[in-house]
Hints:
It is a single chain. This protein is of the alpha+beta class. The chain folds into two domains: 3-204, Endonuclease I-creI (Roll); 229-312, no CATH class. It contains eleven helices and eight strands. It has a four-stranded antiparallel sheet. A four-stranded antiparallel sheet has the order 5-6-8-7. α2 packs across α3, α2 (19-33) runs parallel beside α5 and α10 crosses α11. The chain is rod-shaped and about 110 Å long. It starts with a helix and ends with a helix. The relative contact order is 0.09.
Amino acid sequence: MSFSGEVKEELMKHVSSSRHCQLAELAAIIHFCGEVVETDGFRQLFLQTENGLLVRKCFTLCKKTFNIEACSVSDGKENGVRTKNGVLILEAQENVEKVFLALKAEAAYEMKETLRLQTNTMLLKNSCCRRAFLRGAFLSVGSMSDPEKSYHMEFACEAESQAEQLRDLILDFEVEAKIIPRKKHFVVYIKEGAAIVDILNIMEAPVALMNMENLRIVKEVRNSVNRRVNCEAANITKTVNASSKQVEDILLIKEHHGLQNLPDGLREMAEIRLEYPEATLKELGQYLNPEVGKSGVNHRLRKLSEIADAIRS
């Protein structure tokens, strides 16, 4: 199972004990995936989804919130009665009316497109209700990438008004989210690892949160080690290249000028460098008598390089 699937399975099992939070989560599911179909004056509620977890969660919320038995399961699977309109959730007219009155979405009876408008804000007054709404939204239209590969969470909304409301709800929790159009959808997305961890915490998915945090720690340690190794490799390469150039300069001076003709400090420096071609500046300074600091060693080597350049020219 994908990481996104694991998150949804955990969220599906989480049912709030408060009725107002149950209403908020049910509102998210219906507004993002619901469709009201009228036939011969009777209205039925369908879910446009292939996700069996979402259908089961909707059944559970209808039962706990309204004591309504949703449509029976078929084929031994808890995915409802599937029709051309989607998965049939509520068939009885009075049950559909009861749900939409409680969700303050009576206007949805007029045309199914109104289901894609913003959810009534009266359902989202409390912080706990906004958490429940985000939980329902992720179950309905959310997804996220495997955190081992990249950090990306998104909600694919059909209407721009849905996306804007969802983004604003996320911002209420001080988590930055952005909207981008993609084909026929408006996608609310989050790309920063810490922000996705915050959203998992907000939606109350502690197991997924801990799994992601563990992966983030391993990933950050691995990246830190790689950066350190790359830095040390670059320093070693730089030191080797500089040492090779210094030895080349000293051999040129020895051949054309003679080391014995150099001032004592430069002569000693040249001899030490030839004897210890792989030593660092600090180590070279310790071999001198008396000892010299890194800046002093660097100054003498630079003088030798100038002499070599003068011979070449």
